[in-house]
Specification:
alpha/beta; two-stranded antiparallel ribbon; 35% helix; single chain; 345 residues; eight-stranded mixed beta sheet; globular; 10 strands
């Protein structure tokens, strides 16, 4: 069933036909030597990437720099979210050799930081937690100088499965809220707002650096975005927040309600920092896998502040013993003390 006729903002001013994309959403066409090299590695090792499966607008830029977001547990999701371009259906059997291939391919890429995500596997008894843990451990073994960021599903709120992943000690563990409370039934029909908050709270209580991401322009109101930010700070004390523009993958997905302006994204960033997030990456083309190394060549004051904050978080997460270690983060001229309560010793 096509979702293009659905209106989610309960307002008479909604827009279903927005015309051409504004200039600030123009992305680079895929190509270049770095792009070709990475595509060869991905194809050789039979890997899936969320860049391709989710039709990410940043794929050309990121692949040309030799970075990609690896997607494990296959390319078929057991859920049918209204925004997502990853195909839905009955997944194939779990590829037990995937963790080895992922680790070897990341070693070839020579990355300082890698993002790994997955499809939801509600068909599996453990939701894929064991494969997740093995993948993280193999990447750490093959790439000792690479920090690992993992973007996981909600595992239906089962803390035991989350603990299996947490025990593998990824440097950053992320779970995306995606949207505000009111819109969850349409945007994430098989998820629950409160369940995702609980997942993030459980991750944070484990001592890991915790991250989440949301989309805007899908029908939410700004006050609902700010309410979500407050919920994340109150319940889960999240370190890192990303905010990006929703882009409709096909006519069978939820419609775009509005083009959110760069000025509005800056307002989200300032509000998030004011609420106490250590890092807020907010912009039209920002996606949840946007990480520190991808910003190294960008020199605007805002982007440099984001990169510096991420670098400091990662330096703590990479250290062999993290218990009680504090790091100073510069946020809009203020010194903020952050403690990562976790020990790997």
């Amino acid at each position: 069933m096509a979702l293009s006729g659905m209106v989610l903002n309960n307002s008479e001013n909604h827009q279903l036909h927005l015309g051409r994309k504004p200039d600030w959403l123009r992305a680079r066409v895929p190509g270049g030597p770095g792009y070709e090299r990475l595509r060869e590695i991905v194809d050789t090792y039979g890997l899936h990437t969320v860049c391709k499966e989710a039709a990410c607008p940043n794929m050309g830029e990121c692949w040309n720099r030799g970075t990609a977001t690896i997607m494990i547990l296959g390319d078929t999701c057991t859920r049918a979210c209204g925004f997502c371009n990853v195909k839905t259906g009955r997944p194939a059997e779990v590829d037990q050799d995937e963790p080895r291939r992922v680790a070897e391919s990341i070693a070839l890429m020579g990355l300082g930081h890698v993002v790994i995500t997955c499809v939801d596997r509600d068909d599996l008894r453990d939701g894929g937690a064991a494969i997740w843990a093995e993948t993280i451990e193999r990447v750490h073994e093959a790439c000792p100088n690479t920090s690992v960021e993992c973007l996981i599903g909600d595992h239906q709120g089962r803390h035991g499965e989350l603990d299996t992943i947490i025990a593998a000690k990824p440097e950053i563990l992320s779970h995306n809220m995606e949207t505000v409370r009111r819109m969850h039934p349409a945007v994430r029909p098989q998820a629950r707002y409160e369940r995702s908050i609980d997942v993030l709270q459980h991750i944070r209580e484990s001592g890991l650096v915790t991250k989440t991401g949301i989309m805007v322009g899908i029908g939410e109101r700004d006050e609902e975005v700010f309410e979500l930010m407050q919920d994340l700070r109150d319940a889960a004390d999240i370190h890192i927040l990303t905010v990006g523009q929703y882009l409709q993958p096909t006519r069978n997905h939820l419609p775009i309600d509005r083009w959110v302006t760069p000025e509005s994204f800056e307002n989200y960033r300032e509000e998030g920092l004011g609420l106490g997030f250590s890092v807020v990456e907010s912009g039209p083309l920002v996606r949840s896998s946007y990480h520190a190394e991808e910003q190294a060549a960008k020199l605007s004051p805002t982007q440099k502040a984001v990169k510096d904050g991420m670098d400091r978080l990662l330096s703590v997460a990479r250290s062999p013993c993290r218990q009680g270690k504090a790091v100073e983060l510069s946020r809009q001229g203020k010194a903020v003390e952050l403690t990562i309560e976790r020990s790997a010793c």
